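Hi C.,

You asked whether I'd gotten around to modeling the 391-residue construct. I have! Everything is below, sequence then structure, no commentary in between.
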Amino acid sequence: MHAGTRRHTARLIPAALAAGLLLTACGTGAGSSTAAEPAAKVTVTPAAGGNAAKLGSPISVKADGGKLTAVDVKDDKGEKVPGHLTADGASWTSEGKVRPKTTYTVTTKAKSTGGKESEATSKFTTEQAEKVNKLTNTPGNGQTVGTGMPVSIKFDHKVAKSQRAEVEKALKVTSQPKVEGAWGWVRDWDGKDRIDWRPKDYWPSGTKVSVRGALGGIDSGGGRYFTRDYDFDFKIGADHKAVIDVPSHSMTLYENGKPVDTIKGSAGSPEAPTRGGIHTVRSKNAAETMDSATIGYGNQWMLDSKWVTHLTASGTFLHSAPWNQSIGVVNNSHGCFGMTTSDAKKAYDFLSIGSTVEVKGTSSTVKTDVGNGLEVWQESWQQWQQRSALK
């Protein structure tokens, strides 16, 4: 029995060792499986390193073998680049295009189909634009303007027709309350390209307006790129308008649609009648020298005037005319509406930039071009909509 017991014990020891070895092998197998699980492959375009990234494209991030859980992109000023992550996490795309001579840092988080999480950072720098296009906006940021004011954006350099749709899509106008309107391409009086946004009808008084232009990185044609985005805000002030009745030598001022005053004056003569239609006050000047040469009359006169309200860029103004002895009796100006100095100041104070001045009863048959000032109301809503590059 003693010898048999030893033999039985000897047989049990290998069995126990075998069990232990089996557990160890199972544990090792599980660990190896986790370590071998591949992470999702994340691709950032433009790629990091190498030559400067080409302009004209957005930033894109894609995940293969998993999904993106977070994408954070910042430029070299630390500003966050907005973008959209697809619902399935397969890709992320920036809202705008890469800007010239800018370094971007892209940080991504991803999860593989097997659940493995990973994080990576990519950095790239874009090439310098050989040429740059800039813009000037009207109204200015924070300005309070009249109910007829358009948003007017004038470009330093030409915007190619092939690029206008892309530029227009990058521009957004929002308002509180919401107002319907549309963009239209215009040739400014000075020959430069311009795009204006006008409401279908006049703005309601008190409207708050925001303009956003995600233009950074967009090619305006000829290799000229916009280097940054633009944004500005303005507010619509009091509902003040004026209507000039040429035959009666008068201008009536309206507040909230009701007449509040009538001013006597002298409009353009039959030989140089005042331009008709609805004009928009584009600027004002408390004192100005009226130079005949600026409107094509050579050196016929050089007269000092006060309280000058500018309508067209070609020289249709409201202004004081102390030299005119026939104010309110005869229309004898060269196209302006001249008044006494006190009445000119009254009009100057009442009408703000963006207020409208309608001219009725004129013999003029000249259609004022939209770019001859802020003349967006010279066209019907249907005509205006045809100016859009997206029509």
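If it helps when you're writing up: The domain at 240-360 is CATH 2.40.440.10 (L,D-transpeptidase catalytic domain-like).

Thanks,
B.
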